[in-house]
Amino acid sequence: MALDRKTVARVAHLARVRVEEDKLDQLSGELNGIIGWVEQLGEVDTDGVEPMTSVADLKLRLREDAVNDGDNPERVLQNGPSTELGFYVVPKVVE
Amino acid sequence: MSELLDLTLSEARDKLAAGAITSVELTEAYIAAMDATRALNAYITETPEKARDMAKASDARRAAGDAGAMEGLPIGMKDLFCTEGVLTTAASHILDGFTPTYESTVSGNLWNAGAVMLGKTNMDEFAMGSSNETSYYGPVQNPYMRADGTGKLVPGGSSGGSASAVASRSAIAATGTDTGGSIRQPAAFAGLVGMKPTYGRCSRWGVVAFASSLDQAGPMTRTVRDASIMLGAMAGFDPKDSTSAEMAVPDFEAALSGDIRGLRIGIPKEYRVDGMPAEIEALWRKGIDMMKDAGAEIVDVSLPHTKYALPAYYIVAPAEASSNLARYDGVRFGLRVEGKDLIEMYENTRAEGFGAEVQRRIMIGTYVLSAGYYDAYYRQAQKVRTRIAQDFKDAWQECDVLLTPTTPSAAFGIDEKSDPIAMYMNDVFTVPASLAGLPAISVPVGVDAQGLPLGLQLIGPAFDEAVVLRSADMLEKAAGFSAKPALMAV
Question: What's CA B162's distance to the chain center, in Å?
Fold first, then answer.
């Protein structure tokens, strides 16, 4: 266990959430509390038990491989914070 | 106006059908009630003009002989359901200004059945919480107050705005969603009936996702009959949701036969948790006696893995949340906070857009799914989940429905619980049925020493909502819950 400052900073970056340096210790304490508490699951004998992948006894359906939506760029882009010429605009990615 | 607000959903339906009242009259009464109870903060967005238009259209449909199951009934819609042309926030800053261009299947089903939308109800941010205090739009107040008048109380969560609205009579009923107890716990705190149907019964399409293997929509109402009517209108197969059950929706109201003689009601001994308050224990005993008096057979059963349900939930749900919430990146909708490059823009947007509890859960989820920890945490939790589901399957060999408390306490005060794990403990009785995907309902049965509502929960086998509703109807009749909140529209 033990999510130290470094681990918390790494997880925050993986999750793409900026965490200020001075918040790392507090967050590390909170996350350790939760992780320490869920570790009791290790007590359960799960030998030969399949992990649950679907709670309902349902088979995923197949549908015809056909276009059933689309061709509506205005609707798709309507909520974009920054759009131009039918595209989303983001900061420069390639130098 | 008070007479209109006194009506339950089923009574209003019957009066509308008989021509004794119109939807316009009923809707106007509720719009005035929203006004009168605004201090509770039950709604994020009120839509009175839309409600008036929908009520007029409903009366016209009825005049033309074309009335649906929810015809003319004004309801609150939890702000987790996408509503076309109406701001949808999930109570998060990160969805600032998001106005969907489509309608969720469940809300669409309700409008097709004739329901009228009063507005979008407040909730915990992304449905993550048990007190409605994580909302970006501020906490919601429970219309019930302690007898000694001290402090404002939470309505529970995450569907706290819906609970507060229905209890304070600013909606005749409201939708909720339940991932680990988010319909049942607030229903218990606000003296209401709240039902989470079987996973797959209601479509998840267009509902802002939290934990996709657990999320289910359901009704929050004043009576069990109201819940059966509204659930019938919400449910149904939807090809747009890959986990939607391809099954016919039974007539749930017809299931309320008023007869549970010979029904086997299981009492799981593991729900007698350490430190359970005496009044919860007494309420449970009272419920057992009521069911026995109604002719049911009481059976002691065991669900051995109950104590592991909460920790398993707090791995599975954050893991799914961390994946589902990856879509909020400041590019396609909602809030954007600029940065020097794309990564920094993502990080700034998500740091400012998500509240503390949501950030915590995203990070827990990211951690338990990360390389080296996946097997120890996530995979183990999924195995424990299989065990929990098996416990219930074993129990159905001995009983038809389970009776338990809904919550370990009555409503608590705003700002009273600050420790995350203490907050998670609220869901100790509701999470197991969520992990197993089973239908479960909370029915108000009594009050605590301070006059606050307490509920009991009934859990049934998958896709047997009918047996849950039938027993809930009997429990409701026997309990004769009559408490009224201190704050409500009159």
Answer: 8
